[in-house]
Design a protein that fits this description.
By secondary structure, the protein is of the alpha+beta class. A five-stranded antiparallel sheet has the order 1-2-3-5-4. Helix 2 runs antiparallel to helix 4. The longest helix is centred in the first third of the chain and has 23 residues. The protein is globular and about 40 Å long.
C-alpha cells in the first residue's frame, strides 16, 4: 500500500514545528516506537530549519515537504528554492556552519544522517536545495520480532 502527502508552507521558523507534527501524524499507521518517531521528527526539523535559516536567509520563500509511505518505508523530501549550497560535501561535515553568529551547531546534516537510514542532498547555487531521507520501519519490526 502506498500513501503520500505534499505540503507547502512559508519559510518561517514557526513552521518547523508544523512540519514535525505533520510527519509524525503521517507515520502513525506504521505504529512507530517513541524513539523512531523522535528520530524522524528531529530529522525533519533539521531539514526544515536548514531551508529556513540557510536556504532563504531571511528572505521570503516556500518550503515543500513531500512524504511517501510504501511497504513500511518512509521517504521524505524537503525542498527550498533558496540560495542553494556551494559545497554540499563541506556542508555535510559535522560542526560546519555558515551561520555561527546564530549559534548554529553545524550538526543538522549529521543528525539527519544518524537518525535516518538514507540521506541524499542535492543543491544548485541560486536555485535551491533538495534533502531526501528514508527510514525503513520494517527493519525495526523484524528486529523486534527476533528479540521476542
Amino acid at each position: 500500500m502506498r500513501n503520500e502527502i505534499k505540503l507547502e508552507f512559508d519559510a518561517i521558523s514557526v513552521n518547523e514545528a508544523f512540519a514535525r507534527v505533520a510527519v509524525a501524524a503521517f507515520v502513525t499507521p506504521l505504529n512507530p516506537t517513541i524513539e523512531e518517531l523522535a528520530d524522524v521528527k528531529t530529522a525533519v526539523s533539521e531539514a526544515v530549519t536548514n531551508a529556513v535559516i540557510h536556504g532563504y536567509d531571511g528572505m521570503e520563500g516556500k518550503v515543500t515537504l513531500h512524504c511517501t509511505l510504501q511497504d513500511k518505508r518512509l521517504h521524505i523530501e524537503v525542498r527550498d528554492a533558496g540560495k542553494g549550497i556551494e559545497n554540499v560535501e563541506q556542508a555535510m561535515e559535522p560542526l560546519f556552519t555558515t551561520r555561527p553568529e546564530l549559534d548554529r551547531s553545524g550538526m543538522g546534516f549529521s543528525f539527519m544522517e544518524a537518525f535516518m537510514d538514507r540521506l541524499v542532498v542535492e543543491s544548485t547555487p541560486g536555485e535551491g536545495t533538495l534533502v531526501m531521507m528514508e527510514k525503513d520501519f520494517a527493519k525495526t519490526a523484524c528486529q523486534t520480532d527476533e528479540e521476542e
